[in-house]
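Practice problem: Fido domain-containing protein
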Amino acid sequence: MNLSYNISENVKSYLDKIDKLRIQILTFPISPKDELRLKWDSILERTIWSLSILDIPISKTDAITLLSKRIPIRMFPVKGTSLQAVQKDILNQRRAFTYIREDWLASKNSVTMAVVKKLYEISCKETLGPISGLTEYSEKRMGTWLTYLEKGQDHPAIQAGIAQVETINTTPFDNGNGRVGRLLSYLYLYKAGYDIRDMFILEEFYKRDIVTYKKMLDLAKIQGNLTLWLEYFTFGMGLAMEKTLDVIKNMKFAENLPASFWKLNSRQRQILESMEQPGVKITNKEVVKKFRVSQVTSSRNLVKLASLGLLLTHGKGRSVYYTRV
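Answer key — structure tokens:
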């Protein structure tokens, strides 16, 4: 398989801008409390814009409600049943971003077809159904360019742009290719340490001019050359990072949660302190035993820490455990 593209003068200029902005963002002083809020905002905005591209209706209020775990009864279709599709999409989008941050930030692991399938499982399976349409040919084609990116020396932004457009061009699945492709672009950026403090959002750039976004994708497929797409992608990434820098310089918070949401009680602080050593994990039962509280109180404390992005949730049901971010 021959990926055709050139690192044009425009691309070089945009990459230079990206690298300079990255340094400015990484070195800008932010208090831990403000950084926590800005990261939470980023996940909120990414989720809203990501689903907006798919024309999935979602209000900011409902997104905040779900992501902060303050879920009112009205958001369930019938008592005792599962969340509706839109709410599942919100939570699954967050799970996908958490997976990328947890498993792929500065990772030396190889990106394989199994990883692409996992992104689908996390972000799409609950609402679009199990993987379907994947053929031996498309899987082989995906594997070819994934191997190319693994062996290549391109800038992380170039790798991210190629991963996104080639996932969409290959269309390995019957549904969800655009969603998986966009997530895969983030994965390549995080893998190379271009997480930009977990605070930048690419989807807003796409959605604000959705016609151009779709046109660029179509041109890449029709022409068989990715140069124009890479110019578009790196230009958009630079714009997203400019906005991130402006947000952190001026402390522009997007959410309207009460101040109490960000405050930790003494037990929550103690839980975090008990997990300071790398690799430490904790369960609901262990919190019950260690702090002599009820299971409900323990669960509320752990969920609060997870909703703030201070703990990562692993597993499901009785096998759930938590680790430090």
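Discussion: The chain has two domains: 9-250, 264-324. Students who identified this feature from the tokens alone can consider the problem solved.
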